[in-house]
Amino acid sequence: MKKTTLSQIAIAQLTLGASLVIAPMTSAQAQTVDIMMRAPQVMPEPNAVITAERTRASNLFKALTSVSIPIDDPRLKSMETYIKAGNIAAAEHVATDDPLFYNFRVANLAAKMSTRDESARAPLSDFVATFVGVVRDSDSTPATQLLTGNFYYRGDNAVITANGGTALPEAPMDLFSLKGTHYSQIASRNYSLKAVLKRVDGQQIVVNNAAVAHPDPAGLITSVAFVGAHAVAGTNRRMVEYSYREFMCTPIANWADGTSPDDRVGQDVDRMPGGSPNKFLTTCKNCHANMDGQRGAFGFLDYNDNQGIATFSTTVVQKMLRNADQYPQGFRMTNTSWINYANVGKNADQFGWRSPASGTGIGQFATMLSKSQGFSRCMVRRVFTDVCKRAPVATEESMVRSVADQFEASNYHMRNLFEMVVLRPECGIN
Ligand code: HEC
Question: Among 339, 362, 225, which residue's Cα sits nearest to residue 290?
Fold first, then answer.
């Protein structure tokens, strides 16, 4: 038999076109995949009998991906076969393996967590891409790394160019600035997130137009999208407020506590609002004692709105020290230390802390959140709310907590969480 040389294979590839890209490849990443989202091409079968299992497959697929596909779609037939064989997990896997799951269900859930107005129509960003990537890579990536990971996801230009696309812009200002177009082009080109995203270890920020290692990485909390949403102007209190809102599912009013020590409340907060110390003690302190206690984590962080980039200092940034004359005896930040006072009473129960209540910097703050029961319960609530189309009600708290325990026992496997939640009787999908 005649031996085929490498160059003959290369020539064969050239003549067969870009769709047939096989070894030998220069990049280990490049592989033949469909990088585009496509409408299903289904031959209707008007006389086919729709079994109860096919209907169930259709309901599960819709709940998991948020997209309806024709009842004769081969994916539903395959799910039907698994359901008939009693293998519901395999049936669900068809849905959570589908590009629609990532581009719609997961991306929309992440989008709502990524901006201040919490709209599912928020643009594709490093936040959304990283969330979607972690769900796709659940087998190797526990969801705690959404908060602790020193990595981000981006479009894989090797995969894109090997499959007929043109490379996405990838200069530092394209990747790490909210003014860049790396992520928006992934969306506008209608790429499959499942196919094109790749994980890159080592978060980065832009300094003088060059990318440098992020000094204090903390998963999504240090994504440019999240920093741009919550560290723009202001006093970085929103970084704390929204970290709790998005990752602990707890709006500030629900973790405010007037009994917490106020020794960390900033100098800019009036202790005599309207001439009344009582007002400080009965209203302002409720939120500010807990929030300002943890604000130090973000002491070195700022956001440059002109350039759309996160910035990092080696000293406390000016906005943390502003209006100091309002109450000079108040707390003046000198470093990034923080104290978690939200660890007694109702807050101890709802957050279920399992790590030290004080630390330094964003990474340790995010680690504390990630290890808490509040975080795993929040992921359950978010998935339940989207998949089951309603938030869990108060009487379902024990369900939330027990699903969260199972989620933790699965090593925080996000994809598995979607599959678990949709089967809960409370979810009403059958
Ligand atoms: C319900 C919770 C809550 C209560 C009650 C509350 N605050 Fe705040 N406060 C916040 C949050 C959240 C922020 C950050 C807002 C932002 O940056 O968008 C903030 C920001 C501030 C700031 C900084 C504003 C800036 O950006 O320059 C001051 C000063 C302040 N609050 C004072 C007070 C005073 C005085 C009271 C009582 C009269 C009070 N707060 C009551 C939650 C609260």
Answer: 339
CA dist 212 and 226 (Å) reads 19
Task: Tell me the CA end-to-end span of the chain in Å, nearest whole number.
Answer: 57
What would the pLDDT profile of 83-138 be if each residue is shown by its tens digit?
A: 999 999 999 999 999 999 999 999 999 999 999 999 999 999 999 999 999 999 99
Residue 251 Cβ contacting ligand 1 at under 6 Å:
no
382, two tokens: 């978010």
CB distance 426 to 155 below 8 Å: no
For 321-332, b/e burial (b = at least 16 CB within 10 A) is beeeeebeebbe
d(CA 154, CA 211): 15
| 274 exposure class (CB count in 10 Å sphere: 0-12, 13-18, 19+) | exposed
For ligand 1, atom 21, the nearest C-alpha belongs to: 269
pLDDT given for residue 1 in this prediction:
36
The pLDDT tens digits of the residues spanning 136-192 come to: 999 999 999 999 999 999 999 999 999 999 999 999 999 999 999 999 999 999 999
User: Contact, 317 vs 335, CB < 8 A?
Assistant: no
Of the candidates 109, 129, 94, 95, the one whose C-alpha atom is nearest the C-alpha of residue 384 is: 109
| Residue 349: HSE in the Cβ half-sphere, 13 Å Cα cutoff | 5
How far is the C-alpha of 195 from the C-alpha of 245, rounded, in Å?
A: 30
Q: Could you count the other beta carbons within 10 Å of the beta carbon of residue 368?
A: 25
Is 287 near ligand 1, meaning CB less than 6 Å away?
Answer: yes
Cis peptide before 24 (omega within 30 of 0): yes
Ligand 1 in reach of 428 Cβ (< 6 A): no
Q: Which amino acid residue places its CA nearest to atom 13 of ligand 1?
A: 237
Contact 295 CB / ligand 1 (< 6 Å): no
What is the phi-psi region of residue 411: left when phi exceeds 0, alpha when psi lies from -120 to 50, beta otherwise? left
